[in-house]
Design goal:
Shape: globular
Order of helices and strands: HHEHEHEHEHEEEEEHEEHHEEHHEH
CATH superfamily of the largest domain: Type I PLP-dependent aspartate aminotransferase-like (Major domain)
CATH topology of the largest domain: Aspartate Aminotransferase, domain 2
Helix content: 25-40%
Number of domains: 2
CATH class of the largest domain: Alpha Beta
Strand order of the largest sheet: 1-9-8-5-4-2-3
Number of strands: 14
Amino acid sequence: MVDLQGQYAKIKDVVDPSIEEVMNSAAFINGPKVHQFQKNLEDYLGVKHVIPCANGTDALQIAMMGLGLQPGDEVITADFTFAATVEVIALLQLTPVLVDVDPVTFNIDVNAIKKAITPKTKAIVPVHLFGLPAEMDDIMALAKAHNLFVIEDNAQAIGASYTHSDGRKTKAGVIGDVASTSFFPSKNLGCYGDGGAIFTNNDALAHRIRGIVNHGMYERYHHDVVGVNSRLDSIQAAVLDAKLPHLNSYNTARRSAARKYNEAFKNHPSIITPTGLDADDHSDEHVFHQYTLNLKGVDRDALVAHLQSNNIPCGVYYPIPLHRQKAYSDERYNEADFTVTNQLVKTVISLPMHTELDDEQINFITSTVLNFINSNS
């Protein structure tokens, strides 16, 4: 699904000296490389504060801790996403409220959010799924009307831009009150281990979060808030800082691959290709962390087996809705409220998507998919 070795080979001459610099300095935790990466990412995103941490799941949990959410507070998020989004809500003894998604973008349905708001609702967590930002203008307006926090789950959309209704463009992850991201190796900006970060323009919130990530300390052995141990180590920061200047070109390569996929599948009656690609080759709205098809009248699981038999990796993100997961089931949920998610889990398939995809690979993948569908329709 990703070619990290091929990507590394192209930046080895930058990555290796950066790692060696950390090794020679022995500043493994909170060293200069961490601060350098933090500043460079702040400049890239146009955000006042980037607080690095150990992983993307921690980032989301710490963001919620920083907002002071209390047990029993309701947090609305999408049913169609990775479990980490709802996992941290439950870990903090908050009440997750899952809602359906839009059938075209796969992102959280704003109308479903409206219906789910109660007097106990305190926050909305839009997930920028597969690299496409959610409808943030509508979500922010809704949050303002109901005095709710907005926590962007930006784990899959680093570098994506959102175009506001007035034409302004801002990076995903800097629109809400706070955002989290993941630097898992397969992400668009990935390290060589685990890593994550929190973004915010709120000075007071940033201060609280900086304490939380470090055992609640602002001064050594003085614990002012309840915290956790969640720090980005210097080696991972060195890798990320070496990769950051390439992020735009990485995302451009992913969009180029997506265009070629879309062209191959264009107008096929059994294939719905992803949205988010317009005629502008320089559009940066969708960064294609995943390239996900929605199939019509196709045996998805048989296609998965066929691709695997041809040594083509693929993924099903996600095969089970969160509201049906044993850990997060709730008798309040009504299946009629999840019609889109319940359909998507049966029909989506993600094809290889990374910076090193070439035309030969794309042609082989698309022809294999089309041959299977056309011969089984």
